């Protein structure tokens, strides 16, 4: 499948994300862990979809499958009408780069790069000019309230500041799907409101936002809330 074919297959009419009877089973020696059990869901474009559940319930595993970072043991996962299991590694990489933004719980900022450089990093090899990238990265840092920390290294930032830089980085390429794992975990109330406003505006522009969280404040503004426990979605 060519780049153009991949782009053309990602239509506006399909659900943004879909799972059909998805199982994820891990084996460690003789121990079997059923991280996901028969998960089926549909998430539409422009929806703020909130996944709630205790630690170890399967939230992060589900996000990884929705973002094509991992494959199910059984079942099917679709993004923008494309079945991930039918795509090559190259096509999956292209899909993630073009359409998906990630906010990881571990944040994964590069320690020797400044906040601004970390935001720019995902697009450093794009055809977009460096000046344009810097301008967009600076605007995103401003949106998340971290522009004043643009020249600081990750070790010089608080946990909340690193979280906001990670959110800005995920938005740089204007994704159609944003997957966020505990994006407000280290934020104070003011910055939680700032992030929720960003999520609301993204959804209004047609971006699909999926958040795994313990934060009740996200649940209150979500279009859909799904609970997961022991790998079972309710």
Q: What would you say this structure looks like, in words?
A:
- This protein has one domain (45-71, 88-233): 3-Layer(aba) Sandwich (Rossmann fold).
- The strands form two sheets. The chain has a six-stranded mixed beta sheet with strand order 6-7-8-3-9-10, sandwiched between helices.
- The chain contains eight helices and ten strands.
- It is α/β, with parallel strands linked by helices.
- The longest helix has 16 residues, at 189-204.
- Helices cover 35% and strands 26% of the residues.
- The chain is globular and about 50 Å long.
The largest beta-sheet arranges its strands as: 6-7-8-3-9-10
Q: Quick one: CATH superfamily?
A: P-loop containing nucleotide triphosphate hydrolases
Largest sheet: 6 strands, mixed
Strand-residue proportion: 25-35%
| CATH architecture name | 3-Layer(aba) Sandwich
Radius of gyration: 18 Å
How do the helices and strands follow one another from N- to C-terminus? HEEEHEEHEHHHEHEHEE
Shape: globular
CATH class: Alpha Beta
Straight-line distance between termini: 36 Å
CATH topology call: Rossmann fold
* Oligomeric description of these chains: single chain
